[in-house]
Amino acid sequence: MRHSRAGRGSQYDSGAVPELPEVDFVRRLLAPVMTGARVEALLVRRAKLRIPFPTGFEERLVGHTVTAVTRRAKYLLAALSSGETLIVHLGMSGWFRVERAAGPEFDAEPGETDDDPKHDHVVFRMSSGMLVTFNDPRRFGLMDLAARGELASHKALRDLGPEPLSPEFDATALARACHRRKTPIKVALLDQTVVAGVGNIYASEACFEARISPKRKASAIATSTGAPRPQAMALAAAVVKVLERAIAKPTARFKVYERAGTPCPRRTCDGTIRRIVQAGRSTFYCPVCQR
DNA sequence: ATTGAGACCTGTCGGC
DNA sequence: TGCCGACAGGTCTCAA
Q1: CA/C1' separation A53–C5 (Å)
Q2: Active site residue A19
Q3: Thinking of the domain A4-146, which architecture would CATH place it in?
Q4: DSSP code for A18
Q5: Would you kindly state where each structural domain of chain A is located, as residue ranges?
Q6: Do residues A187 and A218 touch, judged by C-beta distance below 8 A?
Q7: How far apart are CA A108 and CA A89, in angstroms?
Q8: Taking the model in full, what pTM does it have?
């Protein structure tokens, strides 16, 4: 029996780290299971993930009803009837598993799942009879609670740039955010204050889609006053395109990410995908068609 | 102010 | 075969 899972695993070969499309996938997995359901019980198996759980974590969750499951950047947000909001980040390796509770206790049905229960850090038992389990081998994930009215000012969210799939994100916004930056454009795309939710994979993919070299200076997509150049238009559109494509087709393979040495997927191009390191991270691109 | 490096963490993989 | 170091990467923190 295979439980539905998300964020990492079977739907995402190549072990991709969850970025915006994957987090949105998890949101769509959790929303129907949690929305309108009350947290009946909470099992916290570990004192902390990347940071300690907030004080009163269990009491602030148990007995309250989830009113909505949304997403901001790579954060999952579960609004509670108490007015508080549960904030979850999947980190590098986090994912959720949803299954029907076997009984009143937290019977994880060991042996019946192919997931390693060793890293099941938090389990929510919902009034709908479903168990929602957070599993994160590397423990780079995060769970926190924001009090009523304090979500927007929460440390994790307050400095985030525009949502790439919202009207706030366009060539003008991208150019403005980049126009004083000396870092390479691909590195700028990873900065969550520039655009929220893009990670290492889709930063490379977006540069490829826009035919822009990842090594190009970020400021080069804008004029000296911060107005968008054509490259800003292309890149903003490419960011939206690669994210929407990944959301629509989670199993699609990447065009350049982790494809060093393979031919450029652009038919009209005879280049070979290269891997370089920028700001300590792998970047994949085609040196022939990306300028 | 902007940028980079180090830390966090552990499963996986290449090399000896 | 087995051990071991390198590597992967999102975000925070600290330093230049």
Answers
A1: 33
A2: yes
A3: Alpha-Beta Barrel (3.20)
A4: P
A5: 4-146, 171-285
A6: yes
A7: 23
A8: 0.91
Euclidean distance between CA atoms A31 and A37, whole angstroms? 10
Domain A171-285 falls under CATH 1.10.8.50: yes
- A18, A21, A184, A214: the catalytic one is A18
CA of residue A180 to C1' of nucleotide C15, angstroms = 22
Closest among A132, A158, A141, A135 to A61, alpha carbons compared: A132
CB distance A163 to A197 below 8 Å: yes
Catalytic residue among A45, A241, A275, A281: A281
The tens-digit pLDDT sequence of chain A (291 residues) is: 222 333 333 333 335 689 999 999 999 999 999 999 999 999 998 878 888 889 899 999 999 999 999 999 999 999 999 999 999 999 988 999 999 987 655 654 444 444 557 889 999 999 999 999 999 988 889 999 999 999 998 989 989 999 999 999 999 999 999 998 989 999 999 999 999 999 999 999 999 999 999 999 999 999 999 999 999 999 999 999 999 999 999 888 899 998 998 999 999 999 999 988 898 889 999 999 999
Whole-number Å distance between alpha carbons of A267 and A263: 9
Separation of A128 CA and C8 C1' (Å): 37
Q: Of residues 65 to 124 in chain A, which lie within 7 A of strand B by their beta carbon?
A: 92, 118-119
List the structure tokens of A3.
């439980």
Tokens of A136: 């994160």
Set A5, A19, A99, A209: catalytic member: A19
Catalytic residue list contains A22: no
